[in-house]
Specification:
The complex is a heterodimer of chains A (111) and B (115).
Chain A (H helix, E strand, L loop, with lengths): L8 E5 L4 E6 L7 E8 L6 E6 L4 E2 L4 E4 L5 E6 L8 E9 L12 E6 L1
Parallel strand pairs in A: 1-9
Antiparallel strand pairs in A: 2-7, 3-4, 3-8, 5-6, 6-7, 8-9
Chain B lengths: L4 E3 L2 E4 L5 E6 L6 E7 L5 E8 L2 E4 L8 E4 L6 E5 L8 E8 L9 E2 L3 E5 L1
Parallel strand pairs in B: 2-11
Antiparallel strand pairs in B: 1-3, 3-8, 4-5, 4-9, 5-6, 7-8, 9-10, 9-11
The chains are: A mainly beta (111), B mainly beta (115).
């Protein structure tokens, strides 16, 4: 699976949009971009995933660049409960659902 | 629809004992994945199972660790003769099938402490 690069940590003010970047410059054509988060040692929580089109659900939006070398997860109105480690993962569609977790971005939402 | 259920949530074992961790996947899910998270580290894939089959065990330590997912009942991760270095959070995830557009859902984990 392609490697991803994320900032180690970010801060965001409560109520503002949180934009979490991810670089995956070696992504291949059959690899999806997945985002999970882990809130203080709980089990990872699925957020969203996409292939090449932008995606939106009730939790977040995923913006993937046209060349697919990077993406941004957007939490439109961050709350204190969104404080977590966010993982950007690239998964080969043909390789099962095994996920390779990197270090992620530790998002701190501040009042 | 209950989520992925793991038990026990916390498990304490003395060095040399056996640890059995159970995972019941979401209803309708036939694929199970186990991950380990050492203190202050990221999650590492251990093993991928379907009913009665081990599909990928590339992340499993060569000794003392085994996993199964029988036709009936939960998936079991078994650690024999535990050592202090086995202390970690063990997470299970499940998915309905392996496809291009699927996601895996995680349980809340079992925290194993070896004393």
């Amino acid at each position: 699976d392609a490697k991803t690069t994320q900032p180690t940590s970010m801060d965001c003010a409560e109520g503002r949009a949180a934009n979490l970047p991810c670089n995956h410059s070696t992504i291949s054509g059959n690899e999806y971009v997945y985002w999970y988060r882990q809130i203080h040692s709980q089990g990872p929580q699925y957020i969203i995933h996409g292939l090449k089109n932008n995606e939106t659900n009730e939790m977040a939006s995923l913006i993937i660049t046209e060349d697919r070398k990077s993406s941004t997860l957007i939490l439109p109105h961050a709350t204190l409960r969104d404080t977590a480690v966010y993982y950007c993962i690239v998964r080969d569609a043909n390789a099962g659902n095994m996920l390779t977790f990197g270090g992620g971005t530790r998002l701190m939402v501040k009042p | 629809n209950a989520g992925v259920m793991q038990n026990p949530r916390h498990l304490v074992r003395r060095r040399g004992q056996e640890a059995r961790l159970r995972c019941s996947p979401m209803k309708g899910h036939s694929h199970v994945y186990w991950y380990r998270q050492l203190p202050e580290e990221g999650l590492k894939f251990m093993v991928y199972l379907q009913k009665e089959n081990i599909i990928d065990e590339s992340g499993m330590p060569k000794e003392r660790f085994s996993a199964e997912f029988p036709k009936e009942g939960p998936s079991i991760l078994r650690i024999q003769q535990v050592v202090r270095g086995d202390s970690a959070a063990y997470f299970c995830a499940s998915s309905p099938f392996t496809g291009k557009n699927t996601e895996a859902f995680f349980g809340q984990g079992t925290r194993l402490t070896v004393v």
